[in-house]
Amino acid sequence: MIVKKPEQPLPANKVLFKVPVQMTGYDVKNYLEKIYKIPVMQVKTRVVCGEIKRAKSTKPYLIKEDDYREAIVDLPKHVQFEYPDLYGGERVKLEDEIEKIEKQFEFIKKREKRRTFSENRHNVPGWFGV
Fold this sequence. Notes:
One of its GO terms (cellular component) is mitochondrial large ribosomal subunit. The protein has 130 residues and is of the alpha+beta class.
C-alpha cells in the first residue's frame, strides 16, 4: 500500500493510495483502521491498467506492467492529510548540483570538439584559424 500523489488536487480530507489488485475497498478500510488507527469514512477503488512500454532491447516487442488498484480514502472532515515533503531543503541543493554537473559536461564536450578539430589540422599554425 503506497501513498500516491494525485494528478488533480483532492480535498484535504481525501488520500489516494496505490494498492494491489487483490485488495478490496473493505480490505483497505480495515487495514487503515486496524493497523494505523486512521478513521475512515468511505473507500472508493478502481483498477488501473498497467503501462505498455516498448522493450529496451533491439527486438520489437512490447512489455506491459502489472495492473494495480487505486483507492481514494475519505477521512472525516476534521482530519487533514498533508503529503510528506520527502526532499525538504535538499531538493534545491540537488537541482543546483545537477545544473553544475550539466555545465561541466557541456564544457568537456566543447573542449573535446576543439581537440579533435585541431588534430585534423596538421602543419597549420594555431593562429591561422578560420
